Amino acid sequence: MAAVVGISPIRARLASKKLFQVTFVCKRCLQQQSKAPPAYRSIRQTPFLKAFRSHGPAQLRQQSSSTASPLGALGRSIGESSRNLPSKSSSWPQTSSKSVAYWLLGSAASVFGIVVFGGLTRLTESGLSITEWRPVTGSFPPRDQQAWEEEFARYKLSPEFKQLNSHMDVNDFKQIYWMEWGHRLWGRVVGITFLLPTGYFIIIRKVDPRMALRLVGICGLIGFQGFIGWWMVKSGLKDDLFEQGKHPRVSQYRLTAHLGTAFIAYLCMLWNGMRILQEHRLIRDPENGLKLLQTLQKPELRAFKRLVGALSVLVFVTAMSGALVAGLDAGLIYNDFPWMGQGLIPPKREMFDPFYSHTEDQKDLYWRNALENPVLVQLDHRILATTTFSAIVALWTYSRFSPAVKASLPKAAKGSMMGVLHMASLQVALGITTLWYLVPTPLAAAHQAGALALLTTVFVLGSRLWVPKRSWRLVRQALAQTKNNMASSAVSKHQPKEVSKTSHDGGAMVEEKEASAKASASAGLNLNVFGAVAGMFSGKSSKEQNADGSTLETKEENAAIKGAGAGNLNANAAADAEQKGRQMRAAIQDKNAS
User: Fold this and answer.
1) How far apart are CA 105 and CA 275, in angstroms?
2) Per the record's keyword annotation, is Transit peptide included, yes or no (predicted)?
3) Cis peptide before 338 (omega within 30 of 0)
4) What are phi and psi of 343, to 5 degrees?
5) Taking the alpha carbons of 234, 239, 240, 245 in that order, is the dihedral positive or negative?
6) Chain centroid to CA 293: how far?
7) Using an 8 Å Cβ cutoff, are 308 and 398 in contact?
8) Helix, strand, coil abundance in the chain, percent, nearest 5
């Protein structure tokens, strides 16, 4: 009683009345009261700040272990598929642009043209007309008659003029000069049109990192090719070629190296260009692309793919043996086919002539004759060409009449195999005709172009059979991305229906909760305005279901329910809770109307 002395009589009477009052609480309110949020010990635990705070690991595990809805399962499947996609951000693209592929193929066509033009330069014996190597200033031809006389005077000092072209005047010199000058200028154009775009594509990130390294390597190969070209010309300007009986010509070894480097540069451009286009085709339709890749991985095609690889090496070696024939003018002897003299092969003393040995014990007799004796060099080229053509016919027969290979080989690869057979037949016809007619310039140039064309068809066939692991990875990523996009579009189409359904069912739920709030107010529940506000902040989007499985609660409804059943609050706030329920019901009806 001493504690009550300091307060007013009215407050003491109310306190004693409240002390002995028995509060009636219905069962529904008790259930809602058990769900009420705990008391806020500090401002950090208020619902408003908790809404902006990230969930802890334990809470995330608890949410993931709860009963999953269909949309939740769909979201998890999308998340699992998105893990297959690259997560690291990089300024380099995954695939090179199509424009890079077209540029590479255009550069390859330019190299193809300069190879043919270089063959014409050799056949017209114009390669030694320019006796100096000036990579920058040499790009400008003589401009007046005096400059032409000075250039012609330098050519007069070469072994070729004194041994072969001593009858030549300035006008004749101009014809061979323009051939060599055009060949060198074309080489400069190839280098510039490849070097500058390479830097541009790398700077603007139009190529992936691996392709960037390859382009830089091709640039170095082009520069090396220019150096080999001058190194080859220099071999035809040696002083020992002034001796009587010597024939001024470039070294057949350096000529072969020059042609082989050009072939390699061309094939690098062609292969990488086709690879980029192939990646884009596979990524554009990843489902069919994956089926194609799986088809190419069948065991039935392993032997066929290995044979195509061996065939590409055989065609390249045959072409290089043709360069030895050209460097030694071996096509001007034994101009018959298939005979060489009285038989299929020439006499042994002609094939292995001791004249070509450089040692007393003649240990180098065989390989020297194989590389320097025109008779044996031509025989080697005939054998290699016949072997190549026979291998192509056998490979086509294998692809045509083997049931396993025929069933597994893609249609594009079958067409490429037929193209290889046709090109090989044309190349054999050109070679035999060139031999019969004593190497005329048009046929010889066409035969050289045919060698590169045949190698091109073989590489096109290989590009449709050989698929790197990188393509597998890109196709799988594209397929996962496609499924992810399809799932996202399905969710976006399905979401409005769910919201409408939730809003419709939510109207009845608000009525029920509104009636519950009225009953609680009439029973004498002490409601507090802060309880309603706290209930609104602590509302969660958990869902209950009717007997028919329809969704009952939304986030706003749950907030109103928990606000109405917050505990022993002031009875004057019941009207406020009822008014809030009406407002929520009106808002949901507006959503349904819209």
Assistant:
1) 11
2) no
3) yes
4) -145, -170
5) positive
6) 15
7) no
8) 75, 0, 25
CA distance 160 to 357: 26
Task: Please compute Rg for the chain using Cα positions.
Answer: 44
Instruction: Look at residues 494, 501, 517 and name the one whose alpha carbon lies nearest to residue 553.
Output: 501
Q: Which residue has the tokens 């490429």?
A: 416
Q: What is the pLDDT of residues 289-335, one digit of tens each?
A: 899 999 999 999 999 999 999 999 999 999 999 999 999 999 999 99
Amino acid 567: pLDDT: 43
User: Which pair of tokens denotes residue 90?
Assistant: 């990089």
Return the amino acid letter for 206.
Answer: K
Beta bridge partners of 340: 343
pLDDT (tens digit per residue) in 459-475: 999 999 998 888 888 88
Please say if the pLDDT value at position 255 is more than 70: yes
Q: Count of alpha carbons within 13 Å of 531, Cβ hemisphere only?
A: 24
Query: Which tens digit of pLDDT belongs to each residue from 226-250?
Result: 999 999 999 998 877 767 767 788 9
Contact at 8 Å (CB) between 558 and 540? yes
Distance between CA atoms of residues 189 and 183, nearest Å: 10
Kindly write down the DSSP assignment for every residue of 489-539, as one continuous string.
HHHHHHHHHHHHHHHHHHHHHHHHHHHHHHHHHHTT----HHHHHHHHHT-
Task: Give CA separation, 476 vs 89, 206, 408, in Å.
Answer: 18, 22, 22
DSSP 4: G
For residue 450, give the nearest of 360, 499, 388, 391 by alpha carbon.
388
Q: What is the 3-state secondary structure (H, E, C) of 318-370?
A: HHHHHHHHHHHCHHHCCCCCCCECCECCCCHHHHCCHHHCCCCCCCCHHHHHH
Q: What residues have CB less than 8 Å from 566, skipping those under 6 apart?
A: 33, 36, 527, 528, 531, 532, 534, 535
What 395-403 contacts at long range (C-beta under 8 Å, 24+ apart), as own/partner pairs, is 395/304, 395/307, 395/308, 395/311, 395/420, 396/420, 396/421, 398/304, 398/307, 399/304
Query: Collapsing DSSP states into helix, strand and coil, what is residue 545?
Result: strand
Fill in the amino acid letter for 477: Q
What value, to the nearest 5°, has the Cα angle with vertex 102 and ends 101 and 103? 90
Locus of tokens 């072994």: 159
Phi, psi angle pair for 545, to nearest 5°? -135, 145
Q: Which of 572, 553, 563 is nearest to 507 (CA)?
A: 553
Query: Percentage of the chain surpassing pLDDT 70?
Result: 68
Beta bridge partners of 545: 551
